[in-house]
C-alpha cells in the first residue's frame, strides 16, 4: 500500500509554542514524546486523522517519539476488527510508531497495584452505592455532593473488599472503588470519582482474567505516565479532567506528562461521531465503514484520497482551541492540487452518445497521440485508437443549443481532443424523440486537432472509440448529508433525515479508453473534463476496473454558492 510519509512543512501552532517553552526550560530534558490513544470501538474518522497527523507530526518535527496506544479499558464495545483497521489507518497516514504499539489492557496489573497503593494511603475506598446512588450523591455545579456512607471504611476492609471484587465474589454494579477526594469540590470530576467497576465480561485481549475494569479517568493519565509521554494532547472536553489526572499522579508521586487540549475538528456535510457512523453502517445507509462516502479514514482512502492530501488539509486548517467546522471543498482542494501534478490523464465517457463520422472509412483505425500529463512533460504521451464510430458525453451535444454552447450542435464545428475537428450534420432519434446517434463529417486536414487555416474552434470535447471502448462501472459521489450541520435537527427529528438521497450515482456502462483496461487497482487518473478517479481496490477485477470519482475537476461547491446567490 502507498504510504507517503513526506510531511508538508508543519505550520506553527500554539502547541509548538508550549513545547518550545518546555524544551527551553529543560522540563522534560528536551524529550518530546506524543501518542495517539484511540478506543478500539469503531473505525477512525477525519477528526482522528487530525489528531494522528498532529501528534506524529510533532514527534517528527522535534525528533521525538510517537506511540500508538489502544485505550482498550472498556471490554464491552471493543473488537479486533477495529484494532486492525486503526493500525492500518495510522500507518497509512504516516504515523510512525515503529515498535511502540501499546495496549492499555497490558497495564491492568500495574493499574490494579497502583489502586491498592492509593487504598493503603487512605486515598481510595470501596463503595457499595449503586451507580444511580453514586450519581444522586454527586450533587450538581454550585451544589455540593454528599459523602458516601462507606467513605470511612478502614484501609484493611478496603483492601479486603477490593481484592474480593477482583476475585469475582460480587455481581456487576454492586460495588466500586472510588478515589477519596472532596465531595464538595467545585469541579465535579473531583467528587470521589469511580476508579474501578465490576464487570464480568470477556476482554478482547485479556479474556476472563479480569472482572474489575478501570474507569477512563483513572486509566488514562496513568497510561501516559507509564509510557513517559511528555505532551498528552487531547480534545477540549478533557480540560476539566486534567486536575483529576494530576491528582492521581501526585498522590502516587509518579512521572507527570503535560496535558494540552485543542478543539475537535469536524467537516461540513458529514458527521464525526463513532456511534452515529456505526449506526449508518449497521442500518445499511452506507455499504460499510469504508464506503467512499464515509468520513472515515478507510472511506476517504477508498474514495481515492492520498495520505499526503490529508496531511496538507490538516496543515491548511491548523490547530486551535476554538472548535471549527471545515468545508468539504477545503479537503477537496488539498487533493486537487496534488492530483493535478501527479495523475495521468485519460478519456472516459460517463453517459455515452454515439457519433458516426459519415466520411470516415468503415474499417480504418488511427492511433492518436495524447498527452499523459500537461503538468509533467516526463509523463510522455500515449496512443488512443480512433475510428468511424465514437462515443461522446450526452451532455456535450445539444440539438437546440443554449446561448454560448460551444460544444456539439448541428452545423457547428467542435474539436475532438487530440483527434480531428468535426461538424454535426444530422441526428437519429428513437420513437420517443430521444437522440440516439449524431452524424458528423470530420475534416481530414485537422489531424491532432489543429486547423491549418487558423480558423478558431471554440469547443473541445473528449471521446472514446466505440469499437475499442472498455465498458466499466463508474461511481459518482456527492456529500453524504445535504446540509452543513446534519446533527442540528429540531426536537423529535433525527440526523438521518438529512442524509443526501443522491450521494451515490452508479453508472453501469461508462465507456473508457482502452488503455484503462490495465489500470492497477488503487491507481488514480484524471478523466479529462470529468474529475479525478480512483480504481477501486476492492471491486476492480483483472482487466475490469471499477472507478470511484474522488473529486470533480473544479470546485463545484463554489459554483453552487454562486448559483444560489
Ligand atoms: P467519538 O466521539 O467519535 O467516539 P472519541 O474521541 O471518543 O471519538 P477516541 O478513540 O477516544 O474517540 O479518540 C482518540 C483520539 O482522537 C482522542 O485523543 C481524541 O481526542 C481524538 N479525536 C477524536 N475526535 C476528534 C476530532 N473530531 N478532532 C480532533 N481529534 C479528535
Ligand atoms: Mg473518547
Question: Could you explain how this protein is built, in words?
Answer:
It is a single chain. This protein has 565 residues and is α/β, with parallel strands linked by helices. The chain folds into 4 domains: 14-99 and 217-326, HUPs (Rossmann fold); 109-214, Alpha-Beta Complex (Glutamyl-tRNA Synthetase, domain 3), CATH 3.90.800.10; 348-469, Ribosomal Protein L25, Chain P (Beta Barrel); 470-565, Ribosomal Protein L25, Chain P (Beta Barrel). 26% of the residues lie in helices and 23% in strands. It is built from 13 helices and 27 strands. Strands 12-25-26-27-23-24-13 form a 7-stranded mixed sheet. Strands 21-18-19-20-14-17-22 form a 7-stranded mixed sheet, with no helix packed on it. Strand 1, helix 2 (46-61) and strand 2 form a beta-alpha-beta unit. The model is unreliable at 1-9 and 558-565 (pLDDT under 50). The structure holds adenosine-5'-triphosphate (ATP) and magnesium ion (MG). Adenosine-5'-triphosphate is lined by residues 37-39, 47-48, 50-51, 234-235, 264-266, 272-274.
Largest sheet, spatial ordering of strands: 12-25-26-27-23-24-13
Largest sheet: 7 strands, mixed
Structural class: alpha/beta
Task: Provide the gyration radius in Å.
Answer: 31 Å
Ligand catalogue: adenosine-5'-triphosphate, magnesium ion
Structurally, the number of domains stands at 4
Q: What structural keywords apply?
A:
565 residues; alpha/beta; Rossmann fold; Glutamyl-tRNA Synthetase, domain 3; Ribosomal Protein L25, Chain P; 4 domains; seven-stranded mixed β-sheet; 13 helices; 27 strands; elongated; disordered N terminus; disordered C terminus; binds adenosine-5'-triphosphate; binds magnesium ion
Amino acid at each position: 500500500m502507498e504510504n507517503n510519509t513526506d510531511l508538508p512543512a508543519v505550520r506553527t501552532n500554539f502547541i509548538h509554542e508550549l513545547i518550545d517553552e518546555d524544551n527551553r526550560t529543560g522540563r522534560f530534558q528536551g524529550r518530546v514524546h506524543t501518542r495517539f490513544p484511540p478506543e478500539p470501538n469503531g473505525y477512525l474518522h477525519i477528526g482522528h486523522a487530525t489528531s494522528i497527523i498532529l501528534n506524529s507530526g510533532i514527534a517528527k518535527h522535534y525528533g521525538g517519539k510517537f506511540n500508538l496506544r489502544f485505550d482498550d479499558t472498556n471490554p464491552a464495545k471493543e473488537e479486533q476488527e477495529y484494532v486492525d483497521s486503526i493500525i492500518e489507518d495510522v500507518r497509512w497516514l504516516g504515523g510512525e510508531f515503529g515498535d511502540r504499539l501499546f495496549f492499555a489492557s497490558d497495564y491492568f496489573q500495574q493499574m490494579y497495584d497502583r489502586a491498592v497503593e492509593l487504598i493503603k494511603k487512605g486515598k481510595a475506598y470501596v463503595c457499595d452505592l449503586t451507580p444511580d446512588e453514586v450519581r444522586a450523591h454527586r450533587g450538581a455545579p454550585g451544589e455540593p455532593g454528599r459523602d458516601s456512607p462507606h467513605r470511612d471504611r478502614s484501609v484493611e476492609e478496603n483492601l479486603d473488599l477490593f481484592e474480593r471484587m477482583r476475585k469475582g465474589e460480587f455481581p456487576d454494579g454492586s460495588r466500586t472503588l472510588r478515589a477519596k477526594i472532596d465531595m464538595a469540590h467545585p469541579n465535579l470530576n473531583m467528587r470521589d470519582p469511580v476508579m474501578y467497576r465490576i464487570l464480568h465480561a470477556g476482554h478482547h485481549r485479556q479474556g476472563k482474567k479480569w472482572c474489575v475494569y478501570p474507569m477512563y479517568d483513572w486509566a488514562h493519565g496513568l497510561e501516559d505516565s507509564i509510557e513517559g509521554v511528555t505532551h498528552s494532547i487531547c480534545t477540549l472536553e478533557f480540560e476539566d479532567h486534567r486536575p483529576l489526572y494530576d491528582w492521581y499522579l501526585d498522590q502516587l508521586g509518579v512521572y507527570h506528562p503535560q496535558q494540552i487540549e485543542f478543539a475537535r475538528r469536524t467537516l461540513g456535510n458529514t458527521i464525526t461521531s463513532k456511534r452515529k457512523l456505526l449506526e449508518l453502517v449497521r442500518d445499511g445507509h452506507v455499504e460499510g465503514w469504508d464506503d467512499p462516502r464515509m468520513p472515515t479514514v478507510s472511506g476517504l482512502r477508498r474514495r481515492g484520497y492520498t495520505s499526503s492530501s490529508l496531511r496538507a488539509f490538516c496543515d491548511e486548517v491548523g490547530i486551535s482551541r476554538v472548535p471549527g467546522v471545515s468545508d468539504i471543498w477545503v479537503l477537496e482542494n488539498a487533493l486537487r492540487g496534488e492530483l493535478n501534478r501527479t495523475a495521468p490523464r485519460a478519456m472516459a465517457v460517463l453517459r455515452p452518445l454515439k457519433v458516426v463520422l459519415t466520411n470516415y472509412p468503415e474499417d480504418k483505425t488511427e492511433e492518436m497521440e495524447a498527452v499523459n500529463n500537461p503538468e509533467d512533460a516526463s509523463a510522455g504521451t500515449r496512443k488512443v485508437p480512433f475510428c468511424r464510430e465514437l462515443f461522446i458525453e450526452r451532455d456535450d451535444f445539444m440539438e437546440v443549443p443554449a446561448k454560448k454552447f460551444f460544444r456539439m450542435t448541428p452545423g457547428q464545428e467542435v474539436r475532438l481532443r487530440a483527434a480531428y475537428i468535426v461538424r454535426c450534420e444530422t441526428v437519429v432519434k428513437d420513437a420517443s424523440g430521444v437522440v440516439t446517434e449524431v452524424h458528423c463529417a470530420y475534416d481530414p486536414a485537422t489531424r491532432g486537432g489543429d486547423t491549418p487555416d487558423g480558423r478558431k474552434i471554440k469547443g473541445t470535447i473528449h471521446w472514446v472509440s466505440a469499437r475499442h471502448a472498455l465498458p466499466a462501472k463508474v461511481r459518482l459521489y456527492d456529500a453524504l448529508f445535504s446540509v452543513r450541520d446534519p446533527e442540528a435537527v429540531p426536537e423529535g427529528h433525527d440526523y438521518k433525515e438529512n442524509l443526501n438521497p443522491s450521494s451515490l450515482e452508479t453508472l453501469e456502462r461508462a465507456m473508457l479508453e482502452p488503455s484503462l483496461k490495465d489500470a492497477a487497482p488503487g491507481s488514480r487518473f484524471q478523466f479529462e473534463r470529468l474529475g479525478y478517479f480512483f480504481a477501486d481496490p476492492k471491486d476492480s477485477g483483472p482487466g475490469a476496473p471499477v472507478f470511484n470519482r474522488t473529486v470533480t475537476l473544479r470546485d463545484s461547491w463554489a459554483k453552487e454558492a454562486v448559483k444560489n446567490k
